Amino acid sequence: MRVGPLKLKLQLVCGDMFAFGPGKADLLDAIERDGSISAAGRTLGMSYRRTWVLVDEMNRCFREKLVETLTGGGKQRGARLTEAGRAVLAAYRDLEAQSSQLVDEASYAALTGALRDKPLAAKGFAASE
User: Fold this and answer.
1) Are residues 70 and 34 in contact, defined by beta-carbon separation less than 8 angstroms?
2) What pLDDT shows up at residue 104?
3) Angle, nearest 10°, between helix axes 22-34 and 37-44?
4) pLDDT for 28-44, tens place per residue?
5) Spatial distance between the Cα atoms of 101 and 5, rounded to a whole number of angstroms
6) Looking at beta carbons, which pairs linking 114-121 to residues 24 or more positions away fall under 8 Å?
7) Angle at the Cα of 35 (from 85 to 1), degrees rounded to 5?
8) Quick one: pLDDT at residue 74?
9) What is the rounded radius of gyration, in angstroms, for the C-alpha atoms of the chain?
């Protein structure tokens, strides 16, 4: 999420793995909308394998699965978010909204006040520097 020059990237860590972050939240939104893991991946421009790896990571990091696959004929094919998946996604989106309010803080004003509009041109520097 970007608010002016501030970019916030909220990530939840599980061991040495990123359990959840903005990309996985977008993936859950797409699965909910498209009803399929592979369709969600196509919507987001992800490979089939990458999409499934991300779902597997989420399901392994949380106490309850966030995404369940449906097998069988008719309308029982595809994937959907579990109640836990919907709750995690809602809590994450709420935390994102709360964090966007940081732009009202004095520290944000101090940082942005010290920031240039554009970086200076790079200077060549010697290997010993």
Assistant:
1) no
2) 83
3) 120
4) 999 999 999 999 999 99
5) 14
6) 115/5
7) 55
8) 61
9) 20
Tell me the C-alpha to C-alpha distance, in Å, between residue 123 and each of 118, 119, 120, 126, 129.
15, 12, 9, 10, 12
Which residues have CB under 8 Å from 48's CB, separation 6+? 38, 41
Q: Which residues of the chain have pLDDT under 50?
A: none
What integer pLDDT is reported at residue 129 of this predicted model? 53
Q: Helix/strand/coil (H, E, C) string of the chain?
A: CEECCEECCCCEEECCEEEECHHHHHHHHHHHHHCCHHHHHHHHCCCHHHHHHHHHHHHHHCCCCCEEEECCCHHHCEEEECHHHHHHHHHHHHHHHHHHHHHHCHHHHHHHHHCCCCCCCCCCCCCCC
Please write down the HEC assignment for all residues of 27-41: HHHHHHHHCCHHHHH
Lookup: tokens for 54 = 């991300």
C-alpha–C-alpha distance, residues 28 and 46, integer Å: 13
Cα 14 to chain center, whole Å?
Answer: 15
Report how far apart, in Å, the C-alpha atoms of 98 and of each of 2, 34, 127 are: 13, 27, 44
Side-chain-side CA neighbours of residue 72 (13 Å): 6
